[in-house]
Amino acid sequence: MTTTRMAAAAAGVLLVAVALAGVARGEDPYVFFEWKVTYGTKTLLDAPQKVILINGEFPGPRINCSSNNNIVVNVFNQLDEPLLFTWNGMQHRKNSWQDGLAGTQCPIAPGTNYTYKWQPKDQIGSFFYFPSLGMHRAAGGYGGISVVSRLLIPVPFDPPADDHMVLIGDWYTKDHAAMAKMLDAGKSFGRPHGVVINGKSGKAAADPPMFTVEAGKTYRLRVCNVGIKASLNFRIQGHDMKLVEMEGSHTVQDMYDSLDVHVGHCLSVLVDADQKPGDYYAVASTRFIHEAKSVSAVIRYAGSSTPPSPAVPEPPAGWAWSINQWRSFRWNLTASAARPNPQGSYHYGQINITRTIRLMVSRGHIDGKLKYGFNGVSHVDAETPLKLAEYFNVTDGVFRYNQMTDVPPAVNGPLHVVPNVITAEFRTFIEIIFENPEKSMDSVHLDGYAFFAVGMGPGKWSAEERKTYNLLDGVSRHSVQVYPRSWTAIMLTFDNAGMWNVRSNIWERHYLGEQLYISVVSPARSLRDEYNMPENALRCGKVVGLPLPPSYLPA
Predict the structure, then answer these.
(1) What is the distance of C-alpha 262 from the center of its chain?
(2) Where is the Plastocyanin-like domain (predicted)?
(3) Radius of gyration for the chain, computed over Cα atoms and rounded to the nearest angstrom
(4) Domain containing 110: what range?
(5) pLDDT above 60 (res 441)
């Protein structure tokens, strides 16, 4: 046996030993990853591009796991700049330390490593990860996360023949650092230059085929929009799709010939290989922007030598079609999710709202440079991560709480550029309204939670709009779109202590300040509600060299 094979075998034995030790201690199983993050060159949209690779791969490795597994990812930063990863849709119960954003974690310095440890606690579904600092997200470095149900937890459909991740997203030929410089100079980087699917574009996306199917079998496709600007419509030539899951919730299983997938969103469909054997295009096209772009990949029936028909199905037009499709999405009330009890046993529509927060997108210029924000406050990251400043009680000089009010200002004044942190009382049920007065689409995400998207409509929101809410079977999820000059309403219980990011998934808006953090503190200061800072947590800013605060009380 060669030295390399012996080392690999020894590593495998070690991982198995550690996993078995965890089982012996009564812990949930462990899944280990080691990532070497580098730059590399890939040809996309007929141009060589500098992209972020993980272990030489783009997209990065898929994280396959079960509910409650302990996920351990050792990240070696071999870039020439700081790095963080965030796990889009993972709720990190009691553990915002692992959220991987500038407000919760010090960056991983070049030439160093950091080990994340997190759990998809009581979660199932389709998600993705991506590098969160600066404009890294525009350079790749993303990958899929699939969380399957534990054994004996019923799933509302038969096991598919295979389970495929389909990562679709817009793409720019500009270097990510150049894009950041454009934004810093007050310039927009404009519309995307194309679309990629599983890291490929053009002819490379169609040959070889994306995957092969066998006639008569059913396949699960987990489709995520990992782009930074454009909503995408996804469809498969000659095949309908049965929607079964959306961002961790089982849905009512309706059939669709195409689906709008907005930035940061994920969904699962079942596709029957019930057509004449041949090659068929899977197509992703931009929506709601001029000069539409698309990409076509090939799904091949086993043994096929028949090329796909050149008649590619056209995407739908207009946003009215899209909002009507959203209204058709329903939570499957009788299905179990990560726990054996039915999803519908949680009656969110019967809970009294304790607070309403209206978040209107603000847009303005400061010193001639474009900024975005919410309610007149444009977020800027602090040198000391907000969570660390709060934990060590050194917030003075780092941030002040609640500089933004719960309602938009009556008159649009100049934007206030500060770290934007608001507080939410632990275990209160809150309604949040997102209002987008811009001419372009928005998509918003909340870390640490799943919320119920209960309503959306044109114009400004008013209390009368509550009469239109879906208070029975709105889908529980972590991201939702806000159409141009429209509003979207969500509801949730703030029962996960930590520091949690609310952000635009439109990364230009995010970079320019359309985000905030919500601090949720348990008054009990108990390990029942939140973990202490991990022993391996990185330190930076004002917390370097400080003694650890007292531990939270035992649960």
Answers:
(1) 11
(2) 37-149, 163-303, 384-523
(3) 23
(4) 30-148
(5) yes
pLDDT at 13: 36
Q: Is residue 62 part of a domain?
A: yes
CB atoms near residue 154 (< 10 Å): 9
Helices (H), 41-197: 176-184
Q: Is residue 155 part of a domain?
A: no
Give the residue from 190, 144, 145 showing the smallest Cα distance to 170. Answer: 190
With residues binned 3-state (H G I as helix, E B as strand, rest as coil), the percentages for the chain, rounded to 5, are 15, 40, 45
The structure tokens listed for 466 are 């509550």
> Is 479 found in the same domain as 391?
yes
What is 467-480 written as a DSSP string? GG---SSPPEESEE
Residue 533 lies in a domain: no
Does the N-terminal peptide bond of residue 82 adopt cis geometry, omega within 30 degrees of 0? no
Query: For residue 343, what are the CA distances in angstroms to 103, 326, 330, 449?
Result: 32, 19, 12, 16
**Beta strand spans in 98-216 (E):** 113-118, 125-131, 143-148, 162-171, 194-197, 211-213
**Both 287 and 233 in a single domain?**
yes
- Answer for the pair 281, 296: CB distance below 8 angstroms, yes or no: yes
Within 8 A by CB and 6+ apart from 429, the residues are: 351, 352, 353, 354, 491, 492, 493, 494
Q: Write the pLDDT tens digit of every residue in 464-519.
A: 999 999 999 999 999 999 999 999 999 999 999 999 999 999 999 999 999 999 99
Do residues 321 and 354 share a domain? no
Residue 458's alpha-carbon distances to 264, 436, 442, 461, in angstroms, are: 22, 10, 13, 8
Give the residue among 516, 511, 506, 186 at the shortest CA–CA distance from 364. 186
For 47-84, how does the pLDDT look when each residue is reduced to its tens digit (9 = 90+)? 999 999 999 999 999 999 999 999 999 999 999 999 99
- Do 311 and 378 belong together in one domain? no
Q: Find, among 350, 376, 355, the residue nearest to 472 by Cα.
A: 350
- One domain for residues 376 and 514: yes
Q: Are residues 459 and 507 in the same domain?
A: yes
> Comparing C-alpha atoms, which of 452, 215, 227 is closest to residue 346?
452
67: Cα within 13 Å, side-chain hemisphere: 18
- Is residue 48 located within the same domain as residue 178? no
Query: Shortest CA distance to 428 belongs to which of 526, 377, 497, 476?
Result: 497
What SS3 state is found at 58?
coil
| CATH number of the domain encompassing residue 469 | 2.60.40.420
Q: CA 402 to CA 357: how far, in whole Å? A: 12
Q: Which strands sit side by side in the sheet containing 113-118, from one edge to the other?
A: 47-54, 30-44, 70-77, 113-118
Rounded-to-10 torsion of CA 495, 500, 502, 506? -130
Query: 368 and 293, same structural domain?
Result: no
